[in-house]
Write a structure and sequence with these properties.
The chain is of the alpha+beta class. It is 37% helix and 18% strand. The protein folds into two domains: 45 residues; 199 residues.
Amino acid sequence: PVPHAPAPHWLPPETPVETTTRLRPVRSRHPLRAAAAVACLVLGLGLTGGAAAGAWLVGDSAARTSAGDRFTEARGLWHTVPVDTLFPRTLDGEGAGPGGADRTWTRVAVAPDGTCAGAFDPLLLRTLRPVGCERVVRATYTDATSTSVTTVGMVFTTADRAGMTALRDRFADESLDERTDLLPRTLPGRGTVAAGFGDAQRASWRVSVLTDVPVIVYAVSGFADGRTVEDAQPAAEAMAEGQTSTPAQAGLGHDADGIADRIERGLRTTATTGKATQDPR
C-alpha cells in the first residue's frame, strides 16, 4: 500500500473523529418494543448478508462468463483486427538479442489468411489436427542488418479451452516443440531480403500453444542470404549459454523467440482490451 501523503494545503482541516455533548438520560424501553427492535435488526442483517452473498455469486459468474466470451471472441481476431495490429510494421526487441543486446525487426512480407495445409509440413499438420484449424495468418520480419529473416504465424483453432490445454500438455510431455520433423514452414517475400527463405533455410524455431486464447503462435528463422542450415535447433536450446551451433552463434534462436514473444503479447493485449499494443515489449 502507498503511504498516506500529507493533506494538500488547499484542503480544509480534517473534522475531529468524534464530537460529543453531555449525555442525556435514556428512558427505559418497553419490553415488546425492545423485542421488535431486535427482530428488525436480525431481519435486516439477514437481508443484507443475503444480498451481499448474491452479489458475490453473480459477480463471480459474470467474471467467468466474461473470460469465456473473450476466449470465443479471440477466435475471430484474424479477420476483425487490422494486419498492422496483428503484425506491427516494426518490433522493438529491447534486450532480446544474445547477451541482452537490443534488436529491431522490420516486417517485409505478409501473407493473406489461409489454411494450415500451406503453412505446415504434413506431420506437423497431423499433430495440430485435434484442435482444428480455423485460419492461419503469417508475416516475415528481418533484423536491422538484414542478415536474418523470421516468419511468424498464428493458427486460430476451433478448439475449446480444454482442447488447447490438452495439446499444450502433449507438446510439453512429448517435447514436440523440439523435433526437427515438426518445423513450421517459412513465408518467403518476393523482391525482399526474404526472397530465398525456404524450407531448406530453416535454422531455429518456436511453437507455443496458448490456452487463454484458441491460438498457436509459432516462428521460424534463418539467414537472409539463402544459405542452408544442417543443425537446426529449437529456439530455447539455441539461446542456452555455451551453445556453439550455427543458429546459436548467429542469434537465430533469439530472433525466433523474440519475435514470437512480441506477437504473442500483442495478441493477448488485443484479445483482452480490443486495442493494439503500441510497444509489444
